[in-house]
Amino acid sequence: MLRVVRGALGVMVLLMWLLCGGVVPAGAGAVEEVGGGPGVSAAEVEAFYWYDPEEPLSPVVVSVGRTQWYDEYEVTYESLGETVYSHFMLPVSSVASPAPCLVGLHGMFSRTEHQFRTMGDFCAKRGIAVLMPSMPFHHRRTKGLPLIPGQQLIVGRPEAVQVNLRRAVLDVRRAVDWLSTVPGVDAARVSVSGASLGGVVAALAFKVEPRLARGVFVGAASGVAGILESGDIDLLDVFRAAARAGLVDPEAFVEALQIVDPINVPDAWPRPALLINGWSDAIMVKENAMRLKESLGMAEQLWTTGGHYVPLYAAEYLIVDYLLGGEEVRVEATGGFAFTERVRGVEAGTDNLWVDISAELGLGSAGTVAEHELSVPMVNRTVPMVVMSEDTYRALAGTIEGRHLPAFVYVVDEDSCVEFVAALAYAQVLGMQADPQVYYVAPVNGVSGGGEGGDQGSDHQGGRYAGYAEYAAGTLRPFGVNQAMNTIESLMKVPGALGATGAGRMAVPLSIFDELHMFGGAGAEDEVGKWLLENIAVENLEPIPWFPDYPCDNPRWL
User: Fold this and answer.
1) In the predicted structure, residue 240 carries a pLDDT above the cut 80
2) 427 and 409 fall within a common domain
3) What is the pLDDT of residue 296?
4) Rounded CA gap, 298 and 213, in Å?
C-alpha cells in the first residue's frame, strides 16, 4: 500500500512538472549549456560559481539557548538576494581557543530545520562549532505550495534545477564568509558535511570553495546519468517512464546538469575528504559513490552492507574523528566527570564501532582515571545504553556477541558506584531519549571479576564465572537516571565510602533502579543475554527525533 501511495505521489509531481513546462521534448536537441559536459573546465566552473563576496551579508544573530557545552543561536544571512535561515552552535570552549567549525547540510525533502541537529549537538559537545543552514526551498525558504517539502530544488526544468543547485552551493560559500568573521571560530578549520542530496551539494561546495579544510559526505554519490538510470525511488521510476514515452529527453537533461554534478567539477584544491556509503544503497548506488570518491584527490571511503540510511551514531564518532584529524576528543559532563574518546578503526564484518574512553572519575575520587570501552550500535533508532563490567561482558559474550543488540554498550572496569555513575554521566552527554534509557547488568554474588584463580579468558561456562549464581538486571527511565545519580552521589559523600586511599569501591545499590530483574541458576548468563535481546529489539525502539522513520537493515562494515 505504501509503495502505491508513493507511486501516485510521484505521478502527481511529474504532472506538475509537465504543467510547468519542465520537460525537454525528445529530439528537441540539447538545452543551452553552461558547462561542457564531462570535460567541464576549471574556467567554466569558476565563472559559473562566481559571486560577489563584497555583497552585504547582513547577518542577524539571535541567542536561543545555552547548555553546559555550547551556546545556540538562530542566524540569518543574505545570499544572492535571498535570506538563508540557519542554526548555529558555538562551544563554550571557543572563548579560550577558537573552535573548528562544520557547515552541515540536511537531506532532500527535509521536513524540519532540526534534521541535522542530532549531529550538530554531538559535534558541539566535542568542541566543534556547527552551522546548519536550510537549503533552498526547504523549511522557512519554502515557496508556493509544494507537494513534497523542498521539491522545487530538484523538480523542474533542468535549467531551473541547475540554478537552484548553484544557489545551494553559494549559500555554503556565503556561510564561510560569515564564519570567517565570527569570534571563537577558527577560520582555517571550517569544513563541510552533508547527507544524501546535502552530501552532493557539500561535495560541490568543497570542490569550488578552497577555504573549506575538510569534507565529509554521507550517503552521497555523483553522476546524474547514473542516478537517473539506477536510482530506485518512485520519482525516478516516473522520470524513466516519461523518457520511454518520449516526454523527456534524458540525455538533454543530464547534459544541462553537468556543471552541478560533482563528478565533473575538477578538484583543484585537493584536501582530506571522507565518504561513508552503503553497498546496497538503491538511491546513490555504489558505482556512483565510487565515482565521487575517485573524483576527489585525497578521499577515503568507508562502506557498510546497508542501504541509503547510513548509521547515524557510528557516523557521528567517525565524522568528529575525521574533522579533528584523529585527535583525542575530551568532553566534560556533570558531577566532575570528563571523558577522553579515541575512535578505533572500523572492523570488517562487525555491526558496531568501538570507542576507547578514558573516564576521569568525579564524586570525590580525586581525578582517578578508569579505562572504559563503548560499543556504538549501527541502527537508526533511539537506543538505550547497557552498562556492565568487562567481566560481565565476557560472561555474556556467548549470547550477545555476533547478535544485533541495538544499544550503546558501555563497558566499565568494575561494578562500583563511581564507575556506574560515570556511565550515567556519559549517557547524559549522549543525550539519549530511549525509555528505559539505561540497563545495568551485574553479578549479585561477589564482585565482578569472580573468585581467585580460574580461567581468565572468555569461557564463561566455567573458571572465573562458575561462582556466579545470580545476576541482577536493573533499568532506569530518563527521569530515573538523574535520581540514581543524586542518590549515589549522596552515598559517596559518606565519610570513608571510598576507602582511605580511594581504592575501595561501593557496590551499586539495587534499590536505585526503576525495575529490577533477577537471574539465577545454571545458564543464568544465557538467560540474561536472551532477556536483553528480547527487550532491546529494534521493533521496540522509537525513530530518532527529527529524522524520517529509517528502515533498519542491520548493516555491517565491509
Assistant:
1) no
2) yes
3) 97
4) 12
For 2-37, write each residue's pLDDT tens digit.
233 333 333 333 333 433 444 433 333 333 333 334
> Where among 293, 323, 353 does a domain terminate?
323
Q: Verify that 376 and 491 share a domain, yes or no.
A: yes
Contacts of 23 (CB under 8 A, 6+ apart): 17, 157, 242, 247, 248, 249
Could you tell me which residue, 256 or 501, shows the higher pLDDT? Answer: 256
Do residues 315 and 336 share a domain?
no
pLDDT at 463 over 60: no
Measured on CA atoms in the order 354, 355, 356, 362, is the torsion positive or negative?
A: negative
| Contact predicate 31/252, CB 8 Å | yes
Is residue 404 situated within a structural domain? yes
Q: What is the number of alpha carbons within 13 Å of residue 179 lying toward its C-beta?
A: 33
pLDDT of residue 363: 62
Rg over CA atoms, the chain = 26
Do 376 and 302 have their domain in common? Answer: no
DSSP string, 463-500: GGGTT--EEEEEEE-HHHHHHHHHHHHHHHTSTTTT-S
Q: How far apart are CA 316 and CA 323, in angstroms?
A: 11
pLDDT at 493: 73
Closest Cα partner for 124 from 86, 98, 94, 90?
90
Is the domain of 132 the same as that of 183? yes
Query: Residues for the chain: how many in total?
Result: 558
3-class SS at 505?
coil
Q: Are residues 293 and 239 in the same domain?
A: yes
Strands 99-105 and 82-91: unpaired
Domain boundary (288, 323, 358) is at 323
How many beta carbons lie within 10 A of that of residue 494, not counting itself? 9
Domain interval for residue 366: 329-450+458-540
Same domain as 308, residue 272 = yes
- Of 4, 11, 305, nearest to 147 by C-alpha is 11
Q: Say how many domains are in the chain.
A: 2
The CATH number assigned to the domain holding 289 equals 3.40.50.1820
18: in domain: no
The DSSP letter of residue 252 is H
Domain assignment present for 12: no
> Of the candidates 227, 229, 201, which has an alpha carbon nearest to the alpha carbon of residue 215?
201
Sheet holding 338-343, edge to edge: 329-332, 338-343, 352-360, 369-377, 408-412, 385-389, 438-443, 470-476, 515-520
| Per-residue model confidence as pLDDT tens digits over 255-281 | 888 899 999 999 999 999 999 999 999
| Side chain identity, residue 411 | V
> Does 113 map to a domain?
yes
Q: Name the burial class of residue 19, with classes exposed (0-12), middle (13-18) and buried (19+) by CB atoms within 10 angstroms of its CB.
A: exposed
Residue 244 has pLDDT above 60, yes or no: yes
> Whole-model pTM?
0.87
- Shared domain for 303 and 417, answered yes or no, is no
Confidence band, pLDDT 50/70/90 cuts, at residue 326: very high
Contact 439, 526 (CB under 8 A): no
